[in-house]
Amino acid sequence: MTELMKNAAAALADRGFEVYTVATAPVAAEKILSLIPEGASVGVGGSVTIDELSVVPKLLSSGHAVHWHWLTDEDRHAVARRAAAADVYLASSNAVTADGQMVNIDATCNRVAAMIQGPQTVILAIGVNKLVDGGISAAIGRIKTQACPPNARRLGLKTPCALTGKCNERECNGKGMCSATTIMHHPPKAKRVVIVLIGQSIGY
Ligand code: SF4
C-alpha cells in the first residue's frame, strides 16, 4: 500500500467514513458483495469503476433488485429516482483529497445527490488513481484533466476537454458533465458511507 493510500484511508476513517483497504479489484468486488445484505435493493450511479468490478451481474444473479440506468433503455430519470430510494447505493468518487474529502463533479447530478441524500448505506469503490496528494483544488484538477475528458469521449460529447484534453468552462458552457461539484467532508448525519479503497487503478 502506498503512503498516500495509507494516509488517505486513515484520514477518511478519522472523518467518520467506514474504510476498508484492499489490494486488488477482485478482492474489492468480494468485499462490496459481502457488505450488501441478502434481499437489499441496490441503486447504482454512473460509474466505470462499478462497471469494471462486475459486481452488478453477481447482484442480479443472486436475486437483488438493481436500479442502474446503464442497464436499461428505460427513462434514466425514472431509474435514477428508484436508485435513490434503494437500500444501498453503489458508486465511486471522482477524487479523494489527502485529508479524506471526497470531491465529485456530475452532469445530471443523480449520482452526487444520491451519495449525499439517498440510500441509507452508500458504498464507494475507489481506485488508488483517484487519490490526490493535495486538497480540493488538486482534486478538482484531477477530475477536470483525468476524469472529464475520457468521460466526455465515452459519451460522445464534443466538449473542449474531450477535443483537447483541457477544460475550457466558458466555451463548454454546460454542454459537458460539469453541472455541479460536491465535497463530502463527512458522512451525512445518520448515514453509513463505506469506502472500499483499492490499491490499483480502476475507473477514471
Ligand atoms: S467544464 Fe466542460 S470542458 Fe471543462 S472539464 Fe467539464 S466537461 Fe470538460
Topology diagram in text:
Layout: H1 3-14, E1 18-22, H2 25-35, E2 42-44, H3 48-53, H4 55-61, E3 66-67, H5 76-84, E4 88-91, E5 95-96, E6 102-106, H6 110-117, E7 121-127, H7 136-154, H8 160-164, H9 169-172, E8 180-184, E9 192-198
Parallel strand pairs: 1-9, 2-3, 2-4, 4-7, 7-9
Antiparallel strand pairs: 5-6, 6-8
The chain binds iron/sulfur cluster.
CATH class: Alpha Beta
Which outline best applies?
Answer: globular
Q: What pattern of helices and strands is seen along the backbone?
A: HEHEHHEHEEEHEHHHEE
Oligomeric composition of the shown chains: single chain
Helix content: 25-40%
Let me know the largest β-sheet: 6 strands, parallel
Query: In whole angstroms, how far apart are the ends?
Result: 20 Å
User: Counting H and I runs of at least 4 residues, what is the number of helices?
Assistant: 9
**Total beta-strand segments:** 9
The tally of structural domains comes to 1
Bound molecules: iron/sulfur cluster
Structural class: alpha/beta
CATH-defined superfamily = NagB/RpiA/CoA transferase-like
* Low-pLDDT runs: none
CATH architecture group name: 3-Layer(aba) Sandwich
Mean pLDDT, to the nearest integer, reads 96
Radius of gyration: 16 Å
User: Strand order, biggest sheet?
Assistant: 1-9-7-4-2-3
**CATH third-tier fold name:** Rossmann fold
Estimate the strand proportion.
15-25%
How is this structure best described in words?
The radius of gyration is 16 Å and the shape is globular. Helices cover 40% and strands 20% of the residues. The relative contact order is 0.21. The mean pLDDT is 96. The longest helix has 19 residues. It is of the alpha/beta class. Bound molecules: iron/sulfur cluster.
